[in-house]
Amino acid sequence: MSALSVASVIEKNRLDSGTPFLVCLDIQVISPSTGNLVETLYVVRNSEPITWQGNLYAALNFDVDIKAEAGEQSDISLKMVDYTRAVQARMQQYGGGVGFGVTVSVVNAGNLEQPPEIQEFFEVVGAKAADYNVTFTLGSENALAMRFPRRIQMRDRCAWRYKSEECGYTGQMTSCDLTLRGNNGCAMHNNTLNFGGYPGINASGYRGV
């Protein structure tokens, strides 16, 4: 993640900006015991929910902050006002939130059919919650701190973006939980042949590519 990309996210998210862009978050809840995806929370910085890429994004007040000093790595924080405590409930159940994935997407509010203007993935490396406020410290942009291997093969988590070319699903269902046999996974979509996970690997391990 480059500082320029993060700065662009913040600029496009300013309330006084004349550019009609929205910032969407895909918060991937990861089980610390198995490394598997449990569910994905979809939220958008907006006054009302939107539907994008087949997923309903709930309206949530949040901001992305950068603090950088000369010669130091940027400190990237995601601050959310979680009135429903939906995020905090997942934090309490799954290791406090550290290890969750966060995909930040900047989308054109006037044309939600087009791909995102900016899309970056982070890992939560620090998390805290007090009252209704949640703060995630997002993974560093330092290349030496990046996860290696870049792609992780998980047993019960699909790697494909829903309704992408790799996913191959073209039916009427509007969302997917990216599991193989979950309540809203590939089996429910009759699309198990295109599942992007690796159900044959050991449940407690992973392979890198």
The helicity comes to: under 10%
Global geometry: globular
Side by side, the strands of the main sheet go: 3-4-2-1-7-8-9-6-5
Q: Low-confidence runs (pLDDT<50, min 5 residues)?
A: 141-151, 203-209
Report mean pLDDT, rounded to a whole number: 79
Q: What structural class is derived from the secondary structure elements? A: mainly beta
- SSE succession: HEEEEEEHEEEEE
Helix count, per DSSP? Answer: 2
Radius of gyration: 17 Å
**What can be said about the biggest beta sheet?**
9 strands, mixed
Please report which band the strand proportion falls in: under 5%, 5-15%, 15-25%, 25-35%, 35-45% or over 45%.
25-35%
Summarize the structure.
The protein is mainly beta.
How would you describe this protein?
- The protein contains 2 helices and 11 strands.
- The protein has helices at residues 3-12, 86-93, and strands at 21-30, 37-44, 50-52, 55-59, 61-67, 75-81, 101-108, 118-130, 133-138, 152-153, 207-208.
- The two termini are 20 Å apart.
- The strands form 2 sheets. It has a 9-stranded mixed beta sheet with strand order 3-4-2-1-7-8-9-6-5, covered by helices on one side.
- With 209 residues, the chain is mostly beta strands.
- The relative contact order is 0.17.
- Mean pLDDT is 79; it is low at 141-151 and 203-209.
Give me the secondary-structure topology.
Blueprint: H1 3-12, E1 21-30, E2 37-44, E3 50-52, E4 55-59, E5 61-67, E6 75-81, H2 86-93, E7 101-108, E8 118-130, E9 133-138, E10 152-153, E11 207-208
Parallel strand pairs: 2-4
Antiparallel strand pairs: 1-2, 1-7, 3-4, 5-6, 6-9, 7-8, 8-9, 10-11
